[in-house]
Design a protein that fits this description.
alpha+beta; Immunoglobulin-like; Rhopdopsin 7-helix transmembrane proteins; seven-stranded mixed β-sheet; 20 helices; about 55% helix; about 20% strand; rod-shaped; Sig_transdc_His_kin_internal; kinase activity; membrane; Histidine kinase
Length: about 625
């Protein structure tokens, strides 16, 4: 029995030697292996010895193989066998062109009863191991002069739904002309589209990182940055723009990392969608987003099983092919969730982006989900030459970045509006605080006349006070009043204080001619607290009284109004010694309110109003009063 098997094997080997070879000569330019070679399906990834190959079921490489759109689920490799008779007058090297990068192709030459590896190409090959540097579609085919050589081509599938290959033999000059024709037929921008996309996503990664770390601590930006760097890896690895292969880990190559990049790409993109669109407020969407996240983490285990145990290929194929179905359902539900709504204008960009991805996924994946293989020529042409999913993701990224910017702008406007409203409320409160403070001081003066039984002065004072009250009530409802109205209030106030000081108070208004007091607007009750401080804490301690000069000027070039209040009182240092703590507290309270009003006024009207107080000294360096300067930027 054992001898019979050896005899049968020997006869099969002899039969292989008698197979019709392919003749190549000086006139050879391009020869297809179709109908000139045999193929055999292998279910064992380690079938690389000649006895193992002899035992396979070999069939002619003809249209019967072409009719098989894909191999059975458990098949991850198949062999092509052919022989060549070199009629060149010397040794030469031709090229073996394969049809699809998504399969790894290894070329072996039979040497006696051994197989010798000549070269490799395609998906899964390390860049340093390619037969021709940078070429995934061609392998050097060395031929000996006048000899017949037998070759075995091992094709390993790395993803599902890969069409069978029909390799061809070509010369270097025909391959060169083919490359030139490809470049002429395809513009550079389309040839390098994935390189452009990789650069685009790297720019998006930088932008999102800058937004997150330096401007807006929004976790959505961080999620999108991580998804973008994964997309950058995916597309740059496809065009070998970067090389992530190591000598210490032979199994690590660009193609392996390319497959792994799908996991973080989808994982972080789903996290971004969940955060940006606030799906946690919707129980169904929240549950579906969590399911999608767990699913993509488990996809790593699916990949490992797919390559380590091919016999489970039917299971892993189902999971792999339908892996994008939950994501499609998620994007469709999100599209409905983000349909344009009032006061959420940024959602219209998210809606269009999600709808674009949903349509692209449905268009490209539906035939695989429903096992539809007879497709129109126009559909095949579109899916072959146009990466619709890539285009959809780029459009989606642009739209979502626009949505992020739109949302941030809306949030900023809302924040500014809220800040302005808060400033307005604070301004109103401070005006209400100012009026009681002013009224309190006026009533004290009236009370002083009443105590002295001076009814005439009390009546006159009360009359002026009623006018002040009326003006004060009118002005309290306004954020600005014209300068003429403010001057009228100040004159009334100073007249009342002059009456109280029995003529010992002198005041002068020095208003330059170029100041249009009937046009310029300033905050009400801005000057009065400083006049009050000058009188009560500067002049009241001088027996001979004193003088106040109010000077108003305007800088037309700088668009500023300059107001100074100068008194010849005892100065702030001396007043601090004489005044009680209660009086000093009262004084600082009025000044504090004025400073806060100026700060709010600047914030609301984007103005640059400044207040400065300095002490005046005479030639003997003795205190000679106080100077208050108010510089108002006219807006």
């Amino acid at each position: 029995m054992f001898l019979g098997l050896i005899l049968l094997t020997s006869l099969q080997v002899l039969a292989q030697k008698d197979s019709k070879p392919i003749f190549v000569s000086a006139t050879t330019k391009h020869i297809s292996l179709l109908n000139q070679a045999d193929y055999a399906i292998s279910k064992k990834s380690n079938s690389k010895t000649l006895p193992d190959l002899v035992a396979l079921n070999w069939k002619p490489l003809d249209t019967s193989l072409k009719a098989l759109y894909e191999f059975p689920d458990a098949v991850l490799q198949y062999w092509i066998r052919f022989s060549i008779q070199n009629d060149y007058p010397n040794d030469t090297t031709l090229l073996l062109k394969v049809a699809d990068k998504m399969q790894q192709t290894l070329l072996y030459e039979r040497r006696g009863q051994q197989l010798r590896l000549l070269g490799q190409s395609g998906f899964g090959s390390r860049i340093s191991d390619l037969s021709i540097g940078g070429d995934y579609w061609r392998i050097n085919l060395p031929l000996k002069q006048g000899q017949r050589q037998e070759f075995y081509l091992l094709n390993s599938k790395y993803i599902y739904n890969i069409k069978p290959q029909h390799p061809a033999i070509e010369t270097f000059d025909s391959a060169y002309r083919e490359k030139i024709d490809e470049q002429v037929a395809s513009p550079a921008i389309f040839r390098n589209i994935k390189l452009w996309v990789a650069g685009f996503y790297f720019a998006v990664f930088i932008y999102c990182c800058l937004k997150y770390f330096f401007q807006r601590k929004d976790i959505a930006y961080l999620y999108y940055a991580l998804a973008s760097i994964s997309l950058f890896l995916r597309y740059s690895l496809q065009v070998d723009a970067i090389v992530l292969e190591t000598s210490w880990l032979s199994g690590l190559n660009n193609d392996f990392i390319f497959l792994l990049s799908f996991v973080p790409q989808n994982f972080f993109y789903i996290l971004f969608l969940a955060k940006f669109l606030e799906v946690k407020n919707n129980k169904l969407l929240h549950a579906l987003s969590n399911f999608c996240l767990v699913q993509w983490v488990l996809m790593i285990a699916v990949m490992i099983v797919h390559y380590a145990w091919p016999e489970f290929s039917s299971i892993t194929k189902f999971i792999w092919i339908y892996s994008s179905l939950p994501f499609l359902i998620f994007t469709l539900l999100l599209s409905y969730h983000t349909r344009p709504k009032p006061n959420r204008g940024y959602l219209q960009f998210a809606f269009i982006g999600l709808l674009t991805i949903s349509i692209a996924l449905l268009f490209t994946m539906a035939p695989k989900w429903f096992n539809i293989y007879r497709l129109p020529d126009w559909y095949t042409a579109i899916t072959k030459y146009v990466d619709l999913v890539t285009i959809a993701f780029v459009i989606d990224t642009i739209l979502f970045l626009t949505a992020l910017a739109y949302r941030d702008r809306q949030s900023e406007i809302e924040r500014i509006d809220l800040k302005i409203k808060n400033a307005e409320n604070e301004h109103k409160i401070l005006r209400l605080q100012m009026n009681p403070h002013f009224i309190f001081n006026c009533l004290n003066s009236i009370n002083l006349y009443i105590e002295k039984n001076d009814s005439t002065l009390a009546s006159s004072y009360l009359s002026k006070f009623s006018q002040l009250m009326r003006l004060s009530l009118v002005h309290s409802r306004k954020e600005k009043i014209v300068l003429a109205e403010e001057i009228a209030v100040l004159k009334l106030y100073l007249e009342m204080e002059t009456m109280r000081f029995k003529g010992k108070l002198n005041y002068v208004f020095d208003i330059e001619e170029n100041v249009d007091i009937d046009f310029i607007e300033i905050p009400p009750m801005l000057i009065q607290p400083h006049l009050e401080n000058a009188i009560w804490h500067g002049l009241m301690h001088k027996s001979e009284g004193g003088r106040i000069i109010i000077k108003i000027s305007q800088n037309l070039m700088a668009q500023t109004l300059h107001i100074t209040i100068a008194d010849n009182g005892i100065g702030r240092a001396k007043a601090a010694e004489l005044n009680s703590k209660a009086a000093e507290k009262e004084k600082s309270y009025g000044t504090l309110i004025t400073n806060e009003r100026i700060a709010i006024f600047n914030q609301k009207f984007n103005a640059d109003t400044k207040l400065q107080i300095e002490d005046l000294y005479d030639e003997n360096n003795e205190p000679a009063g106080t100077l208050v300067s108010i510089n108002i930027h006219l807006v």
